[in-house]
Amino acid sequence: MFFKLKYSIISSMKAKTIKELGEFGLIDFIKKHNTKPKSYHNVYLDIGDDCFSFNPHTKSKYIVTTDILIENVHFKRQWATAKQIGQKAIEVNVSDIASMGNTKPLYAFISLGMPKNTPTKFIKELFNSIKSTCNKYGVHLSGGDTVGAKDITISVTLMGICYDKPISRTGAKNGDLIFVTGTFGDSCAGLEILSKDKKSLKNYEKELIKKHLVPQARLKEANLISQNIKITSMTDSSDGLFKSIELLTENKGAVINMENIPLSKNLIKYTNNNFDKIYSYALFGGEEFELVFTINKKDENKLKKFLPGATCIGTINNGKVTYLQNGKTKNVKYNGYKHF
Amino acid sequence: MFFKLKYSIISSMKAKTIKELGEFGLIDFIKKHNTKPKSYHNVYLDIGDDCFSFNPHTKSKYIVTTDILIENVHFKRQWATAKQIGQKAIEVNVSDIASMGNTKPLYAFISLGMPKNTPTKFIKELFNSIKSTCNKYGVHLSGGDTVGAKDITISVTLMGICYDKPISRTGAKNGDLIFVTGTFGDSCAGLEILSKDKKSLKNYEKELIKKHLVPQARLKEANLISQNIKITSMTDSSDGLFKSIELLTENKGAVINMENIPLSKNLIKYTNNNFDKIYSYALFGGEEFELVFTINKKDENKLKKFLPGATCIGTINNGKVTYLQNGKTKNVKYNGYKHF
């Protein structure tokens, strides 16, 4: 770990690049602006040593997730501000934590690779954004590593606690209803619009782009429903709705009513309301970070009371996964993002 | 997290590149060869979901460290085999855990970025090496992420437990003796030899290179001494001995007897026994991963009994850090590696 280094060098943030600022200047900046951990964090040895150390909450299960974001693969500096990149790096990990049920994210470990000529302004904004997004969720920046790299590389490991049993992806039973939060396809459409490098943007295009650049983890919603209803299985839609459905129906089946999949007005406008086009975004577009979960049918009314915005898109069965368009079977094949 | 994906696709390791193998083929490979966690791991939800989950050991403190290794910054594929790279990625993190005292590393989270044309053979060897090094220490590969990238990028977060109070860097007292394990400067000399791309290598050069490519964490030694002696402060020498001494003497001083710093015969040969040259490697060369620690003078004999190979290089005082060459003050200024 690198933030561990205890240097008291006062850095000048007037340095224009990360090379001028230097490693210790950067570490000093990171440490100086780190909020104190709250009492529930149980921190024994904070950022600034070879390891971060904490006393575990004995009644909770710990949950850990990790994601890596690389420039020109996951984001481009000409499309996203440092603030947006930092925010997204934390939100996507909080989303993984949220999908485990009744949780509290606690500690973040951030490794950062940066080219030597990275403007100090960019790094400052990135870290301020990482920290303010951490603060929003009560997460303590607990450690990390800073290194030179050709492309900006952000690796986040996020640790939290789950007050109840973590909700796995595999618990759905025959007859369970499949629910989702939010709308689908916007993030993917937003990315497509960005990639066109258009000079002027319509309002609905700006909103689709925003959904791509600044996703919001559904932590509050996940906590609310899992504190009050038995969620039989849950995941987030980070790799698209189609994938999420595959994950929740492993070794089982489902009927999905495509017309029930919630869509934004912006996406409908963007696709000129073309059914096939809409669903290529809504099913296969990734980076959406909505909750996809199942409940027993008897809990439907309870769910609607606690989370009126949730939408039922189908039912688990013992067969295979079938997509229906107004009652008729529709042939749907995976057509999503390939990492390699 | 990505290893979380539960795909049963049987991958053909005959695919020549990571692009041919595909993301799911890779995940399948990683999951298939992952050892089952041992009972002491307390795993509640293993690799294969949105998060990894464990029941904490209630009597232990948890310790976490993270490091990121990037191709052409931390390693070059023409200099190091996949096996060596994987091994080093784990050893450097175990070294951070070890420096906390009486510890047991438990869970590793590995994020991997790879170019599309990366040979499958390389990735297979890298993961096999990561896993066998994890196995050596009883570490369970618990999660990760795999993404496309321009350069091979390996981010490791390692979590463990500390049975006693973690040993920080700041506990040394006036009069404490400074001890080290191993020898210093070899890794740095090894890197220098590699960078010359020589056609034939002498035996001592090969050995210096080995110290650079395949460092060994001092976990056994750290456990042995901290179980039996009060270690007042400890760190590993990952950024060089000079830095380690700075870290242990923050707000205090020390007298360092340079001629006591342990050196290998290989380094002496490589530097033609030139004093200044030797100490530029031994003090400022990083990536050494030896233990640098302090004890009360009264524990000296006890230490020598448990760890006869440890060497006393100086004494903590209330002044400033002074380097002596055969009793005479030597002006030593930091001249180490700059990350940016």
Question: What is the structure about, briefly put?
Answer:
Two copies of one chain form a homodimer. With about 350 residues, the first copy, chain A, is of the alpha+beta class.
* Percent of residues in β-strands of chain A: 15-25%
What profile does the largest beta sheet of chain A have? Answer: 7 strands, mixed
At the first level of CATH, the class of the largest domain in chain A is Alpha Beta
Helix count of chain A equals: 10
Instruction: List the secondary-structure elements of chain A in sequence, H or E.
Output: HEEEHEHEEEHHHEHEHHEHEEE
Q: State the assembly state of the protein chains.
A: homodimer
Distance between the termini of chain A: 29 Å
Find the biggest chain interface.
A-B, 76 and 76 residues
* Class inferred from helices and paired strands of chain A: alpha+beta
Tell me the Rg of chain A in angstroms: 21 Å
The shape of chain A, in one word, is globular
Spatial strand arrangement across the major sheet of chain A: 8-10-7-11-9-12-13
Question: Keyphrases for this structure?
Answer:
60s Ribosomal Protein L30, Chain: A; Phosphoribosyl-aminoimidazole Synthetase, Chain A, domain 2; disordered N terminus; 340 residues; seven-stranded mixed sheet; four-stranded mixed sheet; homodimer; 10 helices; alpha+beta
